Amino acid sequence: MRLPRIYVDQPLAGSDVALPPDAAAHVGRVLRMQAGDALQLFNGDGNNYAATIEQADKKQVIVAIGSCTPNPTESSLHLHLGQVISRGDRMDFAIQKAVELGVAMITPLFSERCGVKLDGERLQKKQQQWQKIVISACEQSGRSVVPQVLPALPLAAWLSEPTKDLKLTLHPWADDTIKTLQPTKHIRLMIGPEGGFSEQEIAAAAQAGYLGIQLGPRVLRTETAALTAISALQLQFGDLA
To answer: Helix 90-100 and helix 222-237: axis angle, to 10°?
Structure first.
C-alpha cells in the first residue's frame, strides 16, 4: 500500500515535527491515521522524508522524522507554462494536470479574450488557491519539488520578459510541429484563452520570438491544448515514456 504523502513547509531534518493544522486535520480526521502509522513527508527540497506518527488527536499530530531519500521524479525538461486564465474550474484543472505532467513553473496570464476579471484581493486569493492545487498535485503525483505559481501578468509583460528558453505558442495553422523542433531542455510555453489570441497578440508573440506550433487538425479547448502540448513535449524532450 502506498504511503500517504504530506507537504510540510518547514525543515525536516532529524527531529520531531508538529504537522501544520491543515495537514494534521487531513492525517487525523480524513485519513484517520494513528500513533505508529507511517507516512511520507516532503518540503519542496527534492527529498522524501520517512516519518512515523508519535501522537495523533483532534488538535495535533506529532511525527518523528526518519530517513531522507532523494526523489528522482523531476523531469529533465524545464517547462515554464504561461496559461491565460480560463473560466470556472478549467484553470484549476489545467494547473493540477500540468503539475502532474511535470511542469517546473506556471504564470497565469491576462489577454484580450481572457474573459476573467481578477484584481487586488480576489486575485491574491486565487493565487493562493492555485498554489494549494499545485501542492495537492505534488502530493498525489509523487513530486518533491513544488512548482511555483508566479504572480499573474498581462500578456505584454510576459512577452517582454527576457529568457533564453525556446519560446512556443500554439497556432492551428502553423507549419511547425513538436516533431520538427530541435532538441532542447528549456521551454517557455504560452497557451491562449477559449477564444484564442487576437491577431495583434499573435503578431506581438511572433515579434517577441515565440514560434507557433500546431498539434494536429482538430481545434482543442484551452485546457486540453495545454495538457496535450505538455504531454507531447515531455514525450519528445522530457521523461514521458
So the answer is: 10
Distance CA(230)–CA(5), nearest Å, equals 25
How many whole angstroms separate alpha carbon 36 and alpha carbon 52?
A: 6
Query: Which CATH number applies to 78-237?
Result: 3.40.1280.10
- The mean of the pLDDT values for the chain is 93
Give the burial class of 175: count Cβ atoms within 10 A of its Cβ; 0-12 exposed, 13-18 middle, 19 or more buried: exposed
What is the per-residue pLDDT across 202-212, written as a single tens digit (0 to 9) for each?
Answer: 999 999 999 99
Q: Which residue is listed with cell 505559481?
A: 149
Question: Are 40 and 51 a contacting pair, CB within 8 Å?
Answer: yes
For residue 214, which of 179, 167, 164, 162 has the smallest C-alpha distance?
A: 179
Q: Which pLDDT does position 101 carry in this prediction?
A: 98
Tell me the backbone φ, ψ of residue 9, rounded to 5 degrees: -85, 70
Q: Where are the domains of the chain?
A: 5-70, 78-237
- Cβ-proximal residues to 155 (8 Å cutoff; 6+ apart), any chain: 84, 109, 110, 111, 112, 197, 201, 204
User: From the CB of residue 6, how many other CB atoms can be counted at a distance below 10 Å?
Assistant: 25
Q: Which residues of the chain have pLDDT under 50?
A: none
CATH of segment(s) 5-70: 2.40.240.20
Cα–Cα distance, 86 to 15 (Å, whole number): 43
